[in-house]
Amino acid sequence: MRVILLGPPGAGKGTQAEGIAAELGIPHISTGDMFRAALKAGTPLGLEAKQYMDAGELVPDDVVVAMVRERIAQADCAQGFLLDGFPRTIVQAEKLDATLNENGIGIDLVLNLVCPKEIIVARLTGRRVCRACGAIYHVVNMPPAQAGVCDKCGGELYQRDDDREETILNRLDVYEQSTAGLIGYYRAQGILKDVDAGAPREATLAAMIALINAE
């Protein structure tokens, strides 16, 4: 099954994607994680993406599309995949459809996570990430045993530049202007379903799996 998760930053796409991918036995493909890995490795792609990500802007379509096309062509995606963070524009969606259509396949379901802005800001400003292993915490919802220290490896926890309130608000504006049009694009295809992402994590995951099983 080929699934896309839509929703603004902080709606919980990454967290929910892991649960869905495990349930379906398909790879979870996160463009954000792919870019951050490239940045950590110091690749040209990572350095190019950093200037956009730090400012909360969208990485150019040609960079993202080429990366995703290469990823979904790999063997582990033969039985399906879950896209998290892509597509973000109608242009990207059209290019994805064209790529899949070349192989006689398409997207089966698009889950649109709907979440109030105030909940998103609270979630993202409280997020902390381990510099060493990448583990994610939240100062309120999932704090480490010792403030500022990773439970898993003892590494330093920090707040990413794109998790600061000013950048978050900019990211939400960018989403509304550039990405929200995708909702109409996929709704017109009859494959989009709305999900309440302001609910507790377990309830949101259960609702999404129910929608998938109904397909």
Please outline the helices and strands.
Layout lengths: L1 E5 L6 H12 L3 E3 H10 L3 H11 L6 H12 L8 E4 L5 H12 L7 E6 L2 H9 L1 E4 L5 E3 L18 E2 L6 H15 L1 H8 L3 E5 L4 H13 L2
Describe the structure.
With 215 residues, this protein is an alpha/beta fold. The protein has one domain (2-116, 164-213): P-loop containing nucleotide triphosphate hydrolases (Rossmann fold). 47% of the residues lie in helices and 15% in strands. The chain contains nine helices and eight strands. The chain has helices spanning 13-24, 31-40, 44-54, 61-72, 90-101, 117-125, 165-179, 181-188, 201-213, and strands at 2-6, 28-30, 81-84, 109-114, 127-130, 136-138, 157-158, 192-196. Strands 2-3-1-4-8 form a five-stranded parallel beta sheet, sandwiched between helices. β5 and β6 (136-138) form a beta hairpin. α2 (31-40) crosses α3 (44-54). The mean pLDDT is 89.
Provide a quick synopsis of the model.
With 215 residues, this protein is of the alpha/beta class. The chain is built from nine helices and eight strands. α1 (13-24) packs across α9 and α2 packs across α3.
The biggest sheet amounts to:
5 strands, parallel
Q: State the oligomer.
A: single chain
Strand order across the biggest sheet?
A: 2-3-1-4-8
Which ranges are low-confidence, i.e. pLDDT below 50, for 5 or more consecutive residues?
A: none
Q: Which structural class do you get from the secondary structure elements?
A: alpha/beta
Order of helices and strands: EHEHHHEHEHEEEHHEH
Provide the gyration radius in Å. 17 Å
| Averaged pLDDT | 89
* Whole-number total of structural domains: 1
**How helical, in percent, are the residues?**
40-55%
At the fold tier of CATH, the topology name is Rossmann fold
Described by the principal axes of the CA atoms, the overall outline is: globular
The CATH architecture comes to 3-Layer(aba) Sandwich
CA-CA gap between termini: 10 Å
The total of beta strands comes to 8
Question: Treating each run of at least 4 consecutive H or I residues as one helix, how many helices?
Answer: 9
Question: What fraction of the residues are assigned to beta strands by DSSP?
Answer: 5-15%
The CATH C-level name is Alpha Beta
CATH superfamily: P-loop containing nucleotide triphosphate hydrolases
